[in-house]
Design goal:
single chain; 92 residues; mainly alpha; two-stranded antiparallel sheet; 3 helices; 72% helix; elongated
Length: 92
């Protein structure tokens, strides 16, 4: 992958994280959390697409479809897991 492709992929991943933050809301730390989740999901989706040979919406050497799917999937799962509250006291 070339440097322009990496920068474009990073730009798209950061856009997904910022858009998800705009939809779900939260503070500054939540924004950083979503940006990190989005970038890691984008990379994982791209790597899974390369590993399995699934090319969905290829854009040069970037597998945009699988990368986007991975980013959105990790954002949704990470947001869901981060909102689970643990019970401090026993209800017994």
């Amino acid at each position: 992958m070339t440097l322009p492709t990496l920068l474009f992929a990073l730009l798209i991943a950061l856009f997904y994280g910022a858009a998800y933050h705009l939809i779900r809301g939260g503070g500054f730390w939540r924004l950083l959390f979503f940006l990190g989740l989005s970038v890691s999901g984008f990379v994982m989706g791209h790597l899974v697409g390369i590993w399995r040979g699934w090319m969905v919406i290829p854009l040069g050497s970037l597998n945009l479809g699988m990368s986007s799917f991975g980013s959105i999937l990790i954002l949704v799962i990470g947001d869901w897991l981060s909102r689970i509250e643990s019970g401090r006291e026993s209800k017994v």
